[in-house]
Write a structure and sequence with these properties.
heterodimer; A: 357 residues; ABC transporter involved in vitamin B12 uptake, BtuC; globular; B: 356 residues; alpha/beta; Rossmann fold; six-stranded parallel sheet; 11 helices; 14 strands
Chain lengths: 357, 356
């Protein structure tokens, strides 16, 4: 008996499948998730309902979804500049943290002061902080030939230690019994809320702007074309005479600015101060978002919403069904796993053939 | 006609009354918000033991674990308050601001925040344990049993809670052995087995033959077990993780307080409080003493535990001097709660400086 299934290499990757595989990955994740719930002894459909529908069933829930998706979308857009051009910036979490540190420091400078000029300065400071921090792996890569994956990753831990040091020591709230947190920022240093009673804030416009601008750069500019060529083949880029170093530094700076802005959004939005945990690893989760969105700005919007709901759903599922909250992370892992696995279909065709006896 | 009306009115009133009484008595739902996983065998694990005591007392409970102190805490709190929970225990310091913020929006829900100091609304209480009393016991054992006169101490963050523990431990050890030195390594984490293990190894290299900890994992006692030295467990009884090394543990026992407060909500007697309970109220519990502890030390420790519980002995009784020799507490006096709450200087006998 011969194989019933035959695997054939495609001549070139299928474009339809390129955008279909993320959908397939999400579908497989739901299927596997339901199976896991079943094995754990929960009703799969009820569990999936609490995971993916209940959290966003009302206006408040939906606003929380947007709040959660905002930093993910911003960072993932930034990362897509790097990933498209073959630069593996894994340290968005560090750039976010450093952006938060710089903008938080500026916000603390304006403690107890009010004025319309404060918020723009605070936001700008965050973007600059993120850019500065992203420039380290970029410069080391271009001039000293270091591996940007390692450098950017290790710098994440450095940034968290700097934040620890600041909130425990020099920046800690003088009236706060030495607990590791700063004072609360003044109202002028906080992003305005979009609606009374909801936490969704003006940071979402930063994310939307990043989507539009990145779409324009990717598909309408020379830089976008350079990135695309470098992504396909570094040698071709060299033959074409592109100044590689300049582009590498530029994409890292853009990526760092986006991550820094995400940090600003967290501390001047819902948190309102600096403390040790400004981000629940958004910088790492955004890597999943960027790939799930196929490094496409519109795709990233959808991907950030899908990943954001795994956070919200995990909480709801634990509150109402006592399902361990860490299943949220399992879902995030499964999405990436199934996405990578189904990418196989990009390059190979599966053909079903009749059995021969 | 009239009579029937009155009778039905009375009976329906009685029915309504019993309905409300039973509703008040048993339908109270309590929620718990945890910073870590319930299986950490440390801080969160012990809070969950307390939650189970509330369940055993006949109340419904809900918990959410691994809630980061980021923007997510507020959402979890709001969702719990919104889904029929009458009292919510938030069990990590970083939940302080979100707890107060959400409490303002839900004046009918009671909030209980562990280890914080903000009670901005009448429906917010705070609670913490006098763990330093337990550390007085540990210091007494360590001072009696050290041979190298160097005692290691893995600390988490330089906040009054931790400094107070180091001081209480060192004062007690000095009382039985004036020559001891307490060496501190700051791990800057509450829970990180890798970092905690490194800290313990560094202390062993510096000659420590007993290690105390103010971090939550079982890594330190396991390192001590391998090195053949002694250690103390933290938060839960860690004896089973290092049977030879662990002399005893200071257990966080939240159950009685939790049951008490949930019952108060059920009876309508809940009021805003700032609770700080120690050995006497059973919030701090000393685990069984290991057989390696000599009989005379054991007797002394048992007596000390009783005296701490009754208030006859206070962990911070003068004379107490700081590292530079300045008097902190005069002879015959004890440190008041205000001083304890803001304690940010080492006592004499502790080596090194508090990180700034």
């Amino acid at each position: 008996m011969e194989n019933l299934i035959k695997i054939i290499k495609r001549d070139q990757p299928s474009r339809a499948i390129f955008f279909l595989t993320p959908v397939l990955a999400i579908f497989l994740t739901l299927l596997a998730g339901g199976l896991i719930f079943y094995i754990l002894g929960f009703k799969p459909f009820e569990a999936l309902k609490f995971f993916f529908i209940v959290p966003i069933a009302d206006m408040y829930g939906f606003s929380e979804l947007l709040l959660k998706a905002t930093p993910l979308c911003l960072i993932a857009i930034g990362l897509s500049f790097c990933f498209k051009s073959n630069n593996w910036n894994i340290g968005a979490e560090g750039q976010l943290t450093f952006g938060a540190i710089v903008s938080g420091g500026v916000a603390l400078l304006f403690y107890n002061q009010e004025g319309f000029y404060i918020l723009p300065i605070v936001i700008l400071a965050g973007a600059i902080g993120g850019m500065l921090y992203a420039s380290i792996p970029a410069i080391l890569k271009t001039y000293f030939n270091t591996n940007e994956i390692l450098v950017s990753l290790m710098l994440v831990y450095v940034s968290k230690l700097i934040l620890d040091y600041l909130v425990v020591g020099p920046w800690s709230n003088p009236e706060g019994f030495n607990f590791p947190e700063t004072r609360q920022f003044s109202d002028s240093a906080r992003l305005p809320l979009l609606a009374e009673g909801l936490r969704i804030h003006a940071g979402i416009f930063l994310a939307l702007a990043s989507v539009v601008i990145s779409w324009f750069i990717f598909y309408k500019t020379y830089l976008g074309f350079q990135m695309k060529v470098s992504g396909f083949s570094l040698k071709t880029a060299k033959y074409a005479g592109y100044k590689g170093k300049k582009m590498i530094i530029l994409v890292f700076l853009i990526s760092g600015a986006c991550a820094g802005l995400a940090g600003v959004g967290e501390i001047t939005g819902p948190i309102g101060q600096l403390h040790r945990e400004v981000s629940p690893d958004y910088g790492f989760t955004a890597i999943i978002v960027a790939f799930l969105g196929r490094l496409n700005p519109v795709g990233i919007i959808f991907a950030s919403l899908v990943v954001a709901i795994t956070y919200l759903g995990a909480e709801t599922a634990q509150i109402f069904m006592q399902i361990p909250k860490y299943t949220g992370q399992v879902f995030q892992g499964m999405i990436l796993f199934f996405l990578l696995a189904s990418d196989y279909l990009l390059f190979f065709k599966i053909k079903f053939i009749g059995s021969k006896k | 006609m009239h009579k029937i009306f009155i009778r039905s009115l009375v009976s329906s009133l009685v029915f309504l009354f019993t309905l409300t009484v039973s509703a008040v008595a048993k339908d109270v739902k309590a929620a718990f918000v945890y910073i870590g996983p319930t299986g950490d065998h440390g801080w969160t694990y012990q809070h969950d033991v307390g939650r189970k005591a509330v369940e055993a007392a006949g109340f419904k409970t809900t918990y959410v674990e691994g809630v980061p102190e980021s923007a997510d805490a507020e959402r979890v709190l709001r969702q719990l308050a919104n889904s029929g929970h009458d009292v919510i225990f938030t069990t990590s310091f970083g939940y302080m601001n979100p707890t107060n913020k959400v409490a303002k929006e839900f004046p009918n829900v009671k909030f209980e925040h562990a280890t914080g100091y903000k009670r901005e609304h009448p429906n917010v209480s705070t609670y913490a344990a006098r763990f330093y009393e337990g550390r007085t016991i540990l210091g007494t054992i360590a001072g009696s049993m050290t041979k190298s006169n160097v005692i290691g101490y893995v600390a988490s963050f330089p906040i009054p809670e931790v400094i107070r523990g180091i001081n209480s431990f060192t004062l007690a050890a000095q009382k039985v052995n004036p020559n001891i030195k307490t060496k501190i390594v700051w791990a800057f984490t509450w829970y990180d087995p890798g970092k905690e293990a490194e800290a313990a190894k560094a202390l062993i290299d510096q000659g420590a033959d007993i290690i105390a900890q103010h971090t939550d994992s079982t890594a330190i006692v396991q390192i001590a077990e391998k090195a053949g030295i002694f250690a103390f467990g933290q938060a839960s009884d860690m004896d089973k993780f290092a049977p030879k090394a662990v002399l005893t543990s200071v257990e966080n026992n939240w159950g009685p307080y939790y049951v008490d407060r949930v019952k108060a909500v059920a009876n309508g007697t809940w009021n805003q409080k700032d609770t700080w309970h120690g050995i006497g109220d059973g919030m701090v519990v000393i685990s069984d003493l290991d057989s390696a502890i000599p009989a005379d030390v054991r007797a002394k420790v048992n007596q000390l535990e009783k005296d701490l519980a009754s208030g006859k002995v206070h962990s911070f009784t003068g004379p107490i001097y700081d590292q530079k020799g300045n008097l902190m507490v005069a002879e015959g006096k004890t440190a008041d709660d205000g001083m304890l709450a803001g304690m940010m200087t080492y006592v004499k006998g502790v080596e090194g400086d508090i990180p700034k």
